[in-house]
């Protein structure tokens, strides 16, 4: 998706440790016009799938998933990283390690929002080592739902997550795949 790649090159900031900050347009401040185009692109790439739910993980994936969901005309469900008094009933749980935050989260989702009748599209902003996506895949498996695929805005192709997910036979669509970050310069996969 050239529009996205151009925006990453223009406004993305590379930090030490291969951290790409896109907080000015994607996951802190959100450029809704750009995210609207991202939603359209996910719809185009997964149009053949009978999606009934979009699943993401809090927090950065929620806005992207919501805008994508308007093109699929389905609800968004998001897995929470913390228990709250508002959560009741039976839960699916899994553990997810955050690459960015260097922390392991107990991720939870109410069973009433995902079941065997659902066809799920996973959406997230980044894919690095794949832990968040693997956690969501675990929740889908536990629910008995059908996983139709995963849509990622930015994949770090030089890390193992994308290959791990593809090796599992999952339909993975990443809108921008970064093959390398060297001396602050990004190289995209064509």
Key features?
190 residues; alpha/beta; 6-stranded mixed β-sheet; two-stranded antiparallel sheet; 10 strands; 30% helix
Would you mind describing this structure in some detail?
With 190 residues, the chain is α/β, with parallel strands linked by helices. It has 5 helices and 10 strands, in the order H-E-E-H-E-H-E-E-E-E-H-E-H-E-E. The protein has helices spanning 2-11, 32-45, 60-72, 131-143, 161-167; strands spanning 13-15, 19-21, 53-57, 76-79, 91-98, 103-110, 119-127, 146-156, 172-182, 185-188. The strands form 3 sheets. The protein has a 6-stranded mixed beta sheet, with helices on both faces. A two-stranded antiparallel ribbon has the order 1-2. Strand 5 (91-98) and strand 6 form a beta hairpin. The protein is globular and about 50 Å long. The model has no long low-confidence stretch (mean pLDDT 92).
Q: Summarize this, please?
A:
The protein has helices spanning 2-11, 32-45, 60-72, 131-143, 161-167; strands at residues 13-15, 19-21, 53-57, 76-79, 91-98, 103-110, 119-127, 146-156, 172-182, 185-188. With 190 residues, the protein is of the alpha/beta class.
Radius of gyration: 16 Å
- Report the principal-axis shape: globular
Taking the sheet with the most strands, its summary is: 6 strands, mixed
Query: What is the terminal-to-terminal distance?
Result: 10 Å
């Amino acid at each position: 998706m050239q529009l996205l790649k151009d925006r990453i090159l223009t406004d993305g900031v590379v930090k030490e440790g291969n951290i790409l900050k896109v907080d000015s347009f994607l996951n802190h401040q959100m450029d809704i016009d750009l995210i609207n185009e991202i939603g359209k692109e996910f719809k185009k790439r997964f149009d053949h799938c009978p999606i009934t739910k979009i699943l993401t993980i809090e927090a950065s994936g929620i806005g992207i998933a919501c805008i994508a969901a308007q093109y699929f005309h389905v609800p968004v469900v998001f897995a929470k990283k913390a228990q709250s008094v508002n959560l009741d009933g039976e839960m699916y749980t899994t553990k997810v390690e955050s690459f960015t935050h260097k922390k392991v989260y107990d991720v939870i989702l109410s069973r009433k929002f995902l079941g065997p009748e659902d066809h799920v599209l996973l959406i997230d902003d980044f894919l690095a080592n794949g832990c968040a996506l693997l956690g969501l895949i675990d929740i889908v498996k536990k629910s008995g739902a059908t996983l139709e695929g995963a849509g990622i805005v930015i994949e770090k192709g030089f890390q193992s997550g994308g290959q791990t997910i593809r090796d599992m036979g999952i339909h993975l669509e990443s809108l921008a795949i970064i093959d390398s970050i060297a001396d602050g310069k990004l190289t995209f996969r064509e």
